[in-house]
């Protein structure tokens, strides 16, 4: 509930504090007194765009502050918690405009964005002005009205969860199918590369080892000849080297006692003879192992040629790179095959999610269909009360593809003259008709949902007499369970007030300023009588005013 509105330095308002109570508060005053200025100031804390031209004194900033009581407003508490804003029993929203054009907003003294202000204010205040009826033609608003009457809120919450899950599954499926499509385009090429490497079947370091073996085989004859010559010269020639060194050692042996150094020399010759004999034996053994194998050389060359070709094709240097590519291609091809399994699984999930969502959608649609004739009947009865006896509202409901609000499209159709030529509200209804129609609809759904503080700004234009009386009665009914504030020129509506505020202009020095005050019972009678009969109301007008107040 709006408890207080504080306005500083706004338009022709220097400083103004307005306190509000529950029930029905009526605001009246002469044309031009500043009633619309109050609504403009209120709009600032509701998140509307700021215009620095409203600043009265360019030396100071403009400040508009609203104080709200929200003890039982769970939606407001949740919003504050979600946005990490201070949670208090009293909620203060402040908007500041600087002469340089900058605008700042605060929620409980914490800086807030304009979006936060708009979201929060929508939970606190429903401001309805004359001609401010675009929402009535909105598909979202019309759907909200039907769902409120059908008590569909919980079902819609469940449906939206299913709808989001369905959309998520569809998105995943589309991504996998696109991946599959792109993979299929390259699958044949990947398979070709894989088959090529699979058939080659190289192992790590194979080409490097074959290169070494090839060098050995291609040099085998020369190696064998060299080893044979070595063995021959050392042991089997006419003057074998080993035998010659042995003889030299024997020739030195008799003289080792005469010269001590000869003993060491003999030992070295003997060691050399033994080492050369061992070399000859090793060369002989190696020579037996080495042999020229033309068939093996051909096999190796063929294998190496295949390996060199694949290395060059893929820009590699080593056999292990070919082996790693083979493993990589195997994995990629396996993943492509797994995509088919993933697609089948996601298709099942999409189908299941869609069916679950549609089951809820059908239940929602059934509830809506039941309420269509109820809404038509009750709104049309209210239209008679507000002075539109020939007007008719008709709801058109069509089945559409699933969306965020279900599987239905709702359109409010209107006929102002019993012509049976219904058309969409936004195309045929006038501003005054829309205002009264909106009042009828809001009074209807107010019984079903917890609407916030409702503020009506001169929506009674174009009506009088009994129609005004009925509009006042409807507002009075609304005010039984919520705060309703109404700016009006109609005495029949003003007479229904629980609290009557009067807006007036007064001279302050050299300036004219707007002010407001609460009217006493006697002042109310005078004010309403003046609304009936002018500045100097007759006794009859005064009696009529008393009667209007008495019948409230």
UniProtKB/TrEMBL annotation:
Domain of life of the organism encoding this protein: Bacteria
InterPro entries from the UniProt entry: AAA+_ATPase (IPR003593), DNA_recomb/repair_RecN (IPR004604), P-loop_NTPase (IPR027417), RecF/RecN/SMC_N (IPR003395)
CDD domains attached to this UniProt entry: ABC_RecN
Keywords, in A-Z order: ATP-binding, Coiled coil, DNA damage, DNA repair, Nucleotide-binding
UniProt keyword Coiled coil present: yes
Domain AAA+ ATPase: 21-507
Coiled-coil regions listed: 336-363
Role noted for this protein: May be involved in recombinational repair of damaged DNA.
Family: Belongs to the RecN family.
Full protein name: DNA repair protein RecN
Organism this protein belongs to: Flavihumibacter fluminis
């Amino acid at each position: 509930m709006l408890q207080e509105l504080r306005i500083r330095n706004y338009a022709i308002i220097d400083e103004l504090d307005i306190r509000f109570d529950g029930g029905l508060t009526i605001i009246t005053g002469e044309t031009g007194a500043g009633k619309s200025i109050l609504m403009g100031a209120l709009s600032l804390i509701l998140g509307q765009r700021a215009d620095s031209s409203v600043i009265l004194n360019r030396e100071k900033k403009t400040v508009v502050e609203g104080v709200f009581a929200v003890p039982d407003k769970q939606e407001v508490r949740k919003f504050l918690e979600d946005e990490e804003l201070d949670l208090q029993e009293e909620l203060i929203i402040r908007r500041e405009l600087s002469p340089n054009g900058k605008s700042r907003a605060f929620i409980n003294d914490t800086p807030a964005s304009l979006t936060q202000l708009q979201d929060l204010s929508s939970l606190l205040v429903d401001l309805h002005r004359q001609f401010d009826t675009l929402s009535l033609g909105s598909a979202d608003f019309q759907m909200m009205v039907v769902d409120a009457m059908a008590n569909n809120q919980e079902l819609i919450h469940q449906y939206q969860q299913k709808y989001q899950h369905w959309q998520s599954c569809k998105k995943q499926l589309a991504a996998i199918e696109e991946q599959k499509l792109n993979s299929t385009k390259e699958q044949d090429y990947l398979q070709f590369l894989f088959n090529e490497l699979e058939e080659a079947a190289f192992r790590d370091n194979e080409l490097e080892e074959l290169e070494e073996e090839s060098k050995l085989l291609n040099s085998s004859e020369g190696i064998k000849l060299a080893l044979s010559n070595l063995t021959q010269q050392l042991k089997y020639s006419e003057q074998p080297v080993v035998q010659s060194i042995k003889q030299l050692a024997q020739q030195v042996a008799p003289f080792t006692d005469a010269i001590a150094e000869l003993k060491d020399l003999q030992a070295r010759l003997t060691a050399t003879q033994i080492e050369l004999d061992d070399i000859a034996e090793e060369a002989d053994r190696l020579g037996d192992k080495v042999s020229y194998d033309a068939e093996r050389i051909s096999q190796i060359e063929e294998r190496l040629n295949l390996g060199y070709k694949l290395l060059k094709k893929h820009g590699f240097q080593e056999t292990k790179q070919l082996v790693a590519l083979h493993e990589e291609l195997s994995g990629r091809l396996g993943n492509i095959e797994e995509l088919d399994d993933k697609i089948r699984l996601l298709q099942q999930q999409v189908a299941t999610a869609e069916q679950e969502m549609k089951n809820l959608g059908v239940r929602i649609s059934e509830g809506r269909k039941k309420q269509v004739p109820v809404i038509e009947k009750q709104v049309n009865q209210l239209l008679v009360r507000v002075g539109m006896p020939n007007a008719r509202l008709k709801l058109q409901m069509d089945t559409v593809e699933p969306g965020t609000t279900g599987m239905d499209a709702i359109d409010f159709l209107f006929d102002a003259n019993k012509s049976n030529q219904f058309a969409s509200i936004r195309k045929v209804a006038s501003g005054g008709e829309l205002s009264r129609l909106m009042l009828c609809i809001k009074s209807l759904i107010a019984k079903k949902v917890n609407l916030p503080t409702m503020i009506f700004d001169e929506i009674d234009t174009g009506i009088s007499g009994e129609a005004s009386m009925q509009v006042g009665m409807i507002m009075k009914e609304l005010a039984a369970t919520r705060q309703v504030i109404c700016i009006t020129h109609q005495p029949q509506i003003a007479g229904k007030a629980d609290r009557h505020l009067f807006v007036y202009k007064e001279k302050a020095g050299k300036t004219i300023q707007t002010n407001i005050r609460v009217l006493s019972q006697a002042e109310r009678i005078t004010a309403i009588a003046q609304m009936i009969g002018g500045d100097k109301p007759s006794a009859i007008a005064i009696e009529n005013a008393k009667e209007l107040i008495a019948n409230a």
